[in-house]
Q: What sequence folds into this?
């Protein structure tokens, strides 16, 4: 029987309207939003994207992106086809060659005494639109407040996804702005930079994009070399140099890490000592910038990770290169260990509770030693906007592994924003780490609370030593 | 002005009313609360349709409305506030998955859980259950169109702004999708009857 009377729209509406938010949730969130809007009121005219915010977010983004930098190889044929069309764009990273748009020419603009130059831009077909910006130093080398956006010809404005800008250079600033992807057909956009604290410093830089190359490795691409047998295995983890791009100003290496554990590869950050030398004894300085584009980030899988590092340009008489990495970061999610803490009925700010919670993750013995109740700023302002935290003291020990971060979550009180309520800190010299966990606002919690360990970050000690011949 | 409105956005107040509300919500907590009441249900439904459980949908819904409050001073109203709002929701959901699963694709459009979400709805009527199965078999982009249209209750213009396509192409894509679903559903019923 055909259901002639079926109205598909009605059915779909019924299907998708099945879940309705619980009234208590709607009401509770409304109350909590009122609290948030009181304490986090945005300033009219002030941008969300101030440089301060950007730098803070950039730091977070670098951490998150490096933690999320899990990558892998897909099916062999697809991967082989992809390999054939990988190029390196100096300062940006490894990317596919086809259908990449780049800045047609650098653009410079001055207004209100501020000079900004967009040096290059790379638009990939998937998710990344990255621009390299440079500018003159501001009088006091301060971190300025800037409203930022990328205007498209149809009037739509793309918000900034993340930025990595270094204002510390004496002769100006330099860094990257990364936006969401542009529509495929778009070749024009305007980068709007409004310095809120500097009168007249409203910059609108017109950016023209061109297709980089239809065939072959023409400018700006460098064809990377794929070294043979460039691997080293230590403690169950194999480090391989899969691609090396030898440019006139820099050498970029794409690294692949394979391991047998359940954990993910978190990258080789600036905290990890790395040396890059050649057979003549020269050492090449590492560039402390992140390459914002990577074609290798597309097909993540468990047990394989990627990272890219940049160094000074290799000398022409070098025949053999060696990369030495002393340690690498790994992480593990979904641990689902829980423990309880009884605050009692009358907890006091700065009160301490001794704990002795022990568990083992990734062969690391983790001990939660104590907890201390804390409030935002410790200012004594415990009014309705006050936020409450617990600061845990934690140690983690293992052979050739060092616990460097832990994700704790408070599960008992259903406060919004509970995810992300972690501040992992580097362990101090005694191996102790202090982790701050958010408890909520408005009400000081009492009684028994349950905490969940969502994940950990650890460093695996090497060193890994990879050597290969120049082509 | 009375901003009270808790009905689905597609049948709520006029564009001018919404523009006034958004303008007021930048500085007025009460106006922001009204904006919240107007959108909380469609945002929640959309999150639920992507995440498949109430706890996570509530969590992300809360994050969306905090982000909207923080972003309002930068928002320039061009008649598609819902598109901006749901773009934030999509991003928050993507962030959620990025942090929860290290092996999910990085492309935002592809990181929704495909099969489990709709099957979790467990709709009662037989035809709805068959429809849930059929929609779960669609590719991620098709599912996303359905979610934006039927869970979030967005109009074609708003969906077009989110998925960065023309209004016409969204309309056409949804039209074809519904036609295909209807046809498949009718075939399923026929086969079921024969069995």
A:
């Amino acid at each position: 029987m055909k259901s002639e009377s079926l109205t598909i729209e009605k059915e779909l509406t019924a299907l998708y309207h099945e879940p309705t938010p619980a009234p208590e949730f709607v009401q509770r969130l409304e109350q909590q939003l009122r609290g948030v809007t009181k304490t986090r009121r945005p300033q009219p005219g002030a941008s969300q994207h101030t440089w301060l915010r950007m730098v803070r977010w950039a730091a977070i983004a670098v951490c998150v992106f490096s933690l999320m930098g899990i990558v892998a190889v897909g099916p062999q044929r697809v991967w082989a086809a992809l390999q054939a069309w990988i190029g390196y764009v100096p300062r940006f990273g490894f990317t596919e060659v086809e259908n990449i748009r780049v800045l047609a020419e650098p653009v410079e603009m001055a207004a209100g005494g501020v000079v900004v130059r967009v040096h290059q831009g790379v638009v990939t077909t998937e998710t990344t639109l990255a621009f390299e910006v440079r500018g003159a130093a501001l009088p006091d080398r301060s971190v300025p407040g800037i409203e930022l956006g990328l205007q498209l010809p149809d009037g739509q404005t793309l918000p900034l996804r993340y930025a990595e800008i270094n204002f510390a250079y004496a002769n100006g600033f330099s860094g990257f702005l990364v936006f969401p992807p542009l529509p495929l057909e778009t070749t024009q956009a305007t980068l709007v930079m409004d310095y809120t604290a500097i009168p007249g410093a409203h910059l609108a830089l017109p950016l023209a994009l061109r297709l980089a190359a239809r065939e072959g490795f023409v400018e700006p691409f460098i064809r990377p070399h794929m070294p043979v047998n460039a691997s080293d295995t230590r403690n169950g983890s194999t480090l391989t140099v899969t691609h090396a791009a030898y440019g006139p100003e820099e050498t970029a290496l794409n690294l692949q890490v394979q391991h047998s554990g359940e954990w993910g590869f978190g990258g080789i950050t600036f905290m990890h000592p790395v040396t890059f030398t050649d057979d003549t004894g020269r050492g090449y300085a590492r560039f402390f910038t992140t390459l914002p584009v990577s074609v290798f980030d597309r097909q993540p899988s468990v047990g394989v990770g990627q990272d890219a590092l940049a160094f000074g340009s290799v000398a022409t008489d070098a025949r053999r290169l060696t990369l030495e990495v002393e340690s690498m970061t790994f992480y593990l999610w979904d641990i689902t260990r829980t423990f309880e803490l009884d605050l009692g009925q009358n907890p006091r700010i700065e009160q301490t509770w001794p704990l002795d919670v022990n568990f083992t993750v990734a062969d690391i013995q983790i001990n939660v030693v104590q907890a201390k109740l804390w409030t935002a700023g410790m200012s004594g302002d415990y009014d309705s906007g006050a936020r409450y935290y617990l600061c845990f003291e934690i140690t983690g020990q293992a052979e050739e592994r060092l616990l460097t971060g832990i994700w704790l979550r408070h599960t008992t009180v259903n406060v919004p924003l509970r995810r992300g309520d972690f501040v992992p800190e580097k362990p101090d010299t005694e191996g102790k780490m202090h982790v701050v966990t958010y408890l909520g606002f408005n009400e000081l919690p009492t009684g028994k609370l349950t905490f969940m360990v969502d994940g950990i970050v650890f460093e695996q000690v090497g060193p890994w030593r990879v050597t290969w011949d120049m082509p | 002005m009375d901003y009270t409105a808790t009905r689905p956005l597609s049948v709520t107040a006029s564009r001018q009313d919404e523009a006034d509300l958004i303008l007021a919500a930048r500085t007025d907590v009460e106006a922001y609360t009204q904006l919240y009441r107007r959108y909380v249900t469609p945002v929640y439904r959309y999150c639920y349709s992507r995440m498949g459980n109430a706890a996570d949908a509530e969590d992300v819904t809360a994050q969306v409305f905090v982000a909207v409050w923080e972003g309002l001073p930068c928002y320039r109203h061009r008649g598609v506030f819902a598109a901006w709002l749901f773009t934030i929701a999509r991003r928050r959901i993507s962030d959620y998955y990025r942090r929860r699963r290290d092996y999910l694709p990085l492309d935002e459009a592809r990181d929704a859980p495909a099969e489990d979400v709709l099957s979790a709805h467990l709709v009662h009527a037989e035809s709805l259950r068959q429809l849930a199965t059929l929609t779960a078999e669609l590719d991620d982009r098709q599912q996303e169109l359905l979610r934006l249209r039927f869970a979030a209750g967005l109009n074609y213009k708003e969906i077009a702004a989110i998925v960065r396509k023309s209004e016409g192409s969204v309309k056409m894509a949804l039209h074809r999708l519904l036609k295909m679903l209807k046809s498949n559903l009718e075939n399923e019923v026929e086969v079921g009857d024969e069995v």
Notes: Chain A touches chain B through 66 residues (CB under 8 Å). Residues 23-39 of chain A form the longest helix (17 residues).
